Model the fold of this input.
Amino acid sequence: MDDFYRDYILDHYRNPRNFGHLEKPDVEAEDLNPLCGDTIRMELNVEGGVVRDVKFFGKGCAISQASASMLTETIKGMKLEDVAKLSKDAVLENVGIGISPTRMKCAMLGLRVLKSAAIGRLASWPDEE
Amino acid sequence: MDDFYRDYILDHYRNPRNFGHLEKPDVEAEDLNPLCGDTIRMELNVEGGVVRDVKFFGKGCAISQASASMLTETIKGMKLEDVAKLSKDAVLENVGIGISPTRMKCAMLGLRVLKSAAIGRLASWPDEE
Amino acid sequence: MTQTLRTPALDPKLARIIADFPILARPTSRGKRLVYLDSAATSQKPRAVIQALVDYYEQYNANIHRGVYEIAERATAEFEAARGKLARFINADMHEIIWVRNATEAINLVAYTWGSTNLRAGDAILLTELEHHSDLVPWQALAQRTGAQLRFIPADERGVLVLDDLDALLDGCKLVAIGHVSNTLGTIAPLDAVIPRAHAAGAVVVVDGAQGAPHLRVDVKALDADFYAFSGHKMLGPTGIGVLYGKRALLQAMPPFDYGGDMIHRVEYRDATFAEPPWKFEAGTSNIADAIAFGVATDYLENVGMDWIREHERALTAYAFERLSEFEPRGLAIYGPRDPAATSGVISFNFADVHPHDLASILDTEGVCIRAGHHCTMPLMNKMGWSATARASFYLYNSEADVDALAAGLEKASKVFKV
Amino acid sequence: MTQTLRTPALDPKLARIIADFPILARPTSRGKRLVYLDSAATSQKPRAVIQALVDYYEQYNANIHRGVYEIAERATAEFEAARGKLARFINADMHEIIWVRNATEAINLVAYTWGSTNLRAGDAILLTELEHHSDLVPWQALAQRTGAQLRFIPADERGVLVLDDLDALLDGCKLVAIGHVSNTLGTIAPLDAVIPRAHAAGAVVVVDGAQGAPHLRVDVKALDADFYAFSGHKMLGPTGIGVLYGKRALLQAMPPFDYGGDMIHRVEYRDATFAEPPWKFEAGTSNIADAIAFGVATDYLENVGMDWIREHERALTAYAFERLSEFEPRGLAIYGPRDPAATSGVISFNFADVHPHDLASILDTEGVCIRAGHHCTMPLMNKMGWSATARASFYLYNSEADVDALAAGLEKASKVFKV
Ligand SMILES: Cc1ncc(COP(=O)(O)O)c(C=O)c1O
Ligand SMILES: Cc1ncc(COP(=O)(O)O)c(C=O)c1O
Done:
């Protein structure tokens, strides 16, 4: 895990991309990791089924916040239906390195919230699918 | 415990003394051993504070029934206040030999009921005093 | 009386099983071989289960779910893996497996949660006359709280349930609670007949599997049981751990039972939301070590094979009927069905006028452990007119030599009591 | 970073204690010494406690109370002897010791039994702002069931309870539930001040002793607590066992909690009467092995001496404050009182903008186990404005070397996170 905290992770943690709120989100969702209290909110603008803009808001550890930050970059311009289908690999490719089982929930929180927004109800945990 | 089942115990078990009911008992009590379901009822006639007659009724193992049977013989003519003070030794002297801890409740059931009758409320277990 | 430690004809598989149970190799204080015929009360434990406890405490003892360090991760993983093992063992989904202390708590959990929210005055709860106190008294209490009424499927004089009036009994019935196997008589309940009819009548079915899961292959999906309750200690697992299986949709709709740490989603000073099942029902620090060891117990059972166990117990019961019948001329009476296929390794009996407690004490001097008393089925005893019975119960580690030791003990009792 | 397994200056008594805990001699997967600083979550277990489990399962595993054979008698005797040990440990009578799974269940038991029968709409339940979810959510649920209202003794910004308005808070209050020691901040509650005033106001007092009993000498008679709840796993005992102490008269008046085998006096099909306390509250097969091992854990604690433990933890906390203060210039913030005499071996802190979970993960790579998160006190975290904290907690087997390892881990985190 100590290898995990690379510069680009810390950069996303300290300077999260697409952080904040949208004026008028079309879809949105929010959840917390009950094991640690980390929260993530995702707000999306969708046009013609395609993600035009996204902002996230939250607080938590470097893993959850950096994962969420990177995800927002991944999904811009993606079809909403494809967002709904994203698997945990999408996150793991972003963060680039193995994460211990307990911290997996941290890494997956952003994706879970994003998928919840895309399908309009609480998505299951990507690491439990 | 195999030494326990001597002839006089079996005799009291199969031919219990003072078994049955009194016409008009002055004091009486009944209880069961919740661990096995054995029951004993004690009925006494008391005159001038002295036990004039006693009958017991019940069902159960040789230890509980023989102990109760012998007890009824012990207490005839005894002062009721002395009955209330009987300790577990009174039973152990009667039955004559060591009893394993779990079976102790069997041996003490009759005495507990008798003491309950004597004091007018449920007595504690003589082996726990 | 001297007994050989192993009979020569011992099946090699059985011999290997016996060797896995350390306690069976320890003589009693009188130097007798331990002949354990009380598995319906609690089972003995194989070395692997005991070792699982030691491994947990010596290698990775840590609280689960929230720790991010290595031993906490391992503890969490093994704890949830054990849940998966239990799920597979009864063909459930792991989200349907709630850890509880024992079958008794499992049944109370249903009574306090599903029962309190779904039963109204006038509704009926249908039980059977064979139930263990743990599958009777919680429903009495629920009936008192809600004003529901209790009904009973009758048992005939051999302890077989009589289903003739089942439709009438099910009329207006919201909940059926039925033991899979009677701990007093060993009779196997006709779940296949009762559960579909209960469902057709709109009732939810709780199966008390305390004596089922240890001895019979259980498939909750095939049974279509709504709840299935059982205890680890009766099936090679440690004391203090059991399982409540519940269908996921039912569990989701139920309110929590105990409240506190680990079962919550979000807590404020005046309000809280709860985790998903099964965690919603697991408040506070779980019995981590024993849950893991229970998982190892099911590994062991699977490895031996539940079908092997069933057949082994059937054969032993048949042999025991044979040996016990030798004493019938001297007043031995066997209760329950005489057909080993209709029962599950439990024989209740009485020997002339020897009280079962006295019988058990005499057998104890020979190292033979049987149970005596009402077996937590006082109403059944009263109904049958037995003040107590002696009970021998078998499990995978018992042998014909154990039955022989029982018979030898009965000979001794016969001498002592002159019957 | 290499760490020596023992610092040379180790006190011989402490060295002997450490040697009693097998897990502390096992290096982590990265080859580091295990530095266990999470005893507030669960404690490690000495060899004697583990051995007690093995002995039970290998020598005398049997169900209790009803068996008349040798191993059942021994199991019953050891089980009830353990109850006696627990009673002595907190200066109670053995009839006042109820075996439960954990502190959480103990508190729920009081809420379901005493609470449901004694609270009415409009009555007040007084808690504190420091309570663990397990001493909060059961009362929320009780308040919802009964219509009672919740009130809170406030905590100041260092986590010290403010008693200024206590009389007003106690007005109309039927029940006070208060943690002996805060698991998040280590603050020791002023029970001596609160309990008499609660009694004067007519309230019954439930003490959540989950963090009290492991660390402080507890005398329930001197405290005059009505109920005292605690868990075995936090005080060298196994998981799955805990104790509810209750004053005998209260226990006698309370209805049962779980219903079933072993807690009854007489059962008929439609009615039942119950055993005396404590057995009235112990339905089904108890966690026999773990209860016995919990008794052995209290033997161990008594042997070391609760006063020695208290002083040891005080000294360690003082040393930890010293070492942690080195990081204050880099943004480390310590929460709770800085006075080791006011706390009990728990330090909560945050390090600059390093999230506690990340800090814990980095410390884990060095073998240092701390907890990170809300510590089951979400409302307190919100009130204080902390999204999470890192928590190091000490017990009798911790040493200054452990604190040094923590400090070394913080150095590493400082490097990784460039703070
Ligand atoms: C103060 C406090 N109360 C209650 C509990 C609950 O203890 P358990 O999880 O053993 O039931 C804990 C344990 O985390 C605690 O620290
Ligand atoms: C049929 C049946 N139901 C329920 C129980 C209760 O099991 P436990 O004591 O493990 O809760 C038993 C155990 O004696 C049983 O035999």
Notes: DSSP finds five helices and three strands in chain A. The pocket of pyridoxal-5'-phosphate (ligand 2) is lined by residues C 102-104, 132, 134-135, 179, 183, 208, 210-211, 231, 376; D 261, 284-285 (CB under 6 Å). The helical segments of chain A are 7-14, 62-75, 80-85, 88-95, 101-119. The beta strands of chain A are 27-32, 39-47, 50-59.
